[in-house]
Design a protein that fits this description.
alpha+beta; globular; 4 helices; two-stranded antiparallel sheet
Length: about 90
């Protein structure tokens, strides 16, 4: 059941649509993390090691500027993903 939910999210992203090997790898190695609306998933400046897919709901992206003020960047929705850059570094 969980894999089906994530499969729909992954298939909505064109970067994965033509790469069945990558889709199979992600689906077989994926885990579920449930979060409340006020939960922080990752913090700016922390070392990342996860790729997140939004299976249901939405997520706000905030960053701190050079004055340490929080700034709203954008909203992510079902099917969106983030954290991919942490996997490349």
């Amino acid at each position: 059941m969980t894999q089906h939910i994530f499969l729909n999210s992954i298939l909505k992203n064109p970067i994965f649509s033509d790469n069945q090997d990558l889709i199979d790898f992600l689906i077989n190695d994926i885990s579920t993390r449930l979060s409340l609306p006020e939960d922080t998933l990752i913090k700016q400046g922390s070392e990342g090691e996860d790729l997140f897919f939004i299976a249901k709901g939405d997520c706000e992206i905030w960053v701190k500027d050079h004055m340490r003020q929080s700034r709203y960047i954008r909203q992510l929705y079902q099917g969106d993903y983030f954290g991919e850059l942490s996997l490349l570094t």
